Structure formats: C-alpha cells, structure tokens
C-alpha cells in the first residue's frame, strides 16, 4: 500500500480554491477591525450595537477558524507524506486520515455555498407518492429510507411528524422535521419529482415499471415571539381630545407610540394617567406586532407553497434506474453515479454539491 500523495495534492488545490471563494484573507482583516471596534466606549455602552457586532464576529470567526483548522490538517497530511515511506507501518493510518480530511473539506465546500439566510435554518421535508398505487407508495418508502440514512450520516437531528403507511407496501405520506442547522441548505436540492425505473417486485410477470414520488422542503420558520425594545420606540405625549373636562385639555396624558422598524403607530388617550395610556398603548402594540409578524410568516410560507405548485408532476429532477442498467442521474446538473445502492443508502452529498455549484457557478 502506498500513501495517496495524489489525493493530498488534490486536497491542497481544493483548499486553495475554497479559501479564495470564501475570501478568508479579507474576513481575517474584517475580524481584526471588528475586534477593535467592539472595545470603543460608545459601542460598549450601546447594547443593541454590541449584540450586532458580536453576532457578526461570531459568524466570521467560525468561517475563518473552520478554514484554518482544515488547512492545518491538509498541511499535516502533506508533511506526513514527505516524512514516511510507502512501506511504512503508518501508511494505512495516513490514508484513513486523508479520507476523513476529504470528508471535512466536502462539508466546508457545501456550507460555503449556503448563500441565503434561510439556508442556515432547519427544514421540513415531505414525501408523497405519485399515481401508480403500490409501486409509487413503495418508491416513496424507499426515498424516506434514503433520506433517513442521509440524516444519520450527517448527524442531523430529526423527528418524523407524520407517517401514513400504505397497506400493501411503502407509504402514502411522510413529513419529517430536521432541526439541525444548515438542513434547508442541504435539502433544498431535493425539491422535485424523483423517478424510479425497475423490475417490479409486485408484478408476477416481472415487467419493467416506472414510478414517481415528489419531495418538497420548507425552511423551518420560528414561532412568533414579539419582543419590544425601548430603543425601537418613538414615544410622544399630547393633550387628549374629547370629553373629560379641563384636566383632559390641559395635561398631556395621551400617548402615541411608533415602532420604528415596522412603522406601526398606536395611540391611547382613554385614561386620565399618562402611565396607564402608555401601558395600554404597549399592549395594543404587542398585539399589532404579533399580527404583523404572523402575516410575514404566512407570506413566507405562501412563497414556498407557490414554488411547490410550480413543481407539479412534470418537474423530474432525478432518475434512479435499476433496470436494464444501474444509474442515478440528476437532470438539472447531468451529474450521475452508477453505485445505485450506495445512493439509496443515503450517499447523496455529491448530488447536492453538483446542484449548488451549478446554482452558484462562481465557486
């Protein structure tokens, strides 16, 4: 057995390309600037600004640290490749390390292509069989198994929210919640119709059958929690109008509150006390903000529902052919694999990477 030096060289080249794509040098400089910025008294005393900078620094630091840690591992492999001969006892261990480092690099390459904020969220994945009775239900069940195997390989936390078995074989529906971060970024590539061609195990005449099942993925949308920050409020007082005698007209007891980020305005003047009017106005604002964010959540879900309708049954993204030959082919990228069993056992990461690199060709 020899040390796979060719693979080490390939890892080095891929790492350099990834570093350029991630703009690691630029991010290191940006991180240094933020670290100085955060020590300024005017920033330190502004809790909102401080939180924003800390969040930004945390994201940048993770990206830079992950890349530098991987870079060190690749350089260590290169050093070991030079240090040990091909007949050394350490060769097997070094080649195992090469496989592990390549796996980490692939994960970082994929994560670098999560361009949208929603990519970092968890996901809800649904599977439905197409027309064709037991054939399609069985195929939907095979897809469910494939995705569960994939989740296990990725150490994704998941829960099956809904599972409707078909009496003869397979499933009529499956809904899975994946709570791990980046789940939507990985799984959005799976949205569409998946096609299976095989000799049917349910056909006594052993004929070839084509089955379809649809997969759809929603990003996980957080439960609505309304938090009102005093700094986001513009509070004005004015004299109440209407009945109430001289007191109402002479004292500024009425309160108007504007929520600056949304522009929502609430006024209260029914109480004789400014304190009570402000309290009531804040209660009303809380309700209005809840309704506002609820509508935004519905709009976001509607956007994905419309996308789901567009897919329909004509949008075939991938074919899994078991007969007359063995092949899995993605029709969007033309990426294909012949080890069908490995793919059905959850080895779909290469298909995801091919989809993302086509979507973001600058990589």
UniProtKB/TrEMBL annotation:
The gene is prfB. NCBIfam families: prfB. Residues 50-111 form a coiled coil. Belongs to the prokaryotic/mitochondrial release factor family. PANTHER family: CLASS I PEPTIDE CHAIN RELEASE FACTOR, PEPTIDE CHAIN RELEASE FACTOR 2. It comes from the Bacteria. SUPFAM superfamilies: Release factor. Pfam families: PCRF, RF-1. This is Peptide chain release factor 2. GO terms for cellular component: cytoplasm. Keywords: Coiled coil, Cytoplasm, Methylation, Protein biosynthesis. It is found in: Cytoplasm. Peptide chain release factor 2 directs the termination of translation in response to the peptide chain termination codons UGA and UAA. GO terms for molecular function: translation release factor activity, codon specific. Methylated by PrmC. Methylation increases the termination efficiency of RF2. Residues 239-255 form the Prokaryotic-type class I peptide chain release factors domain.
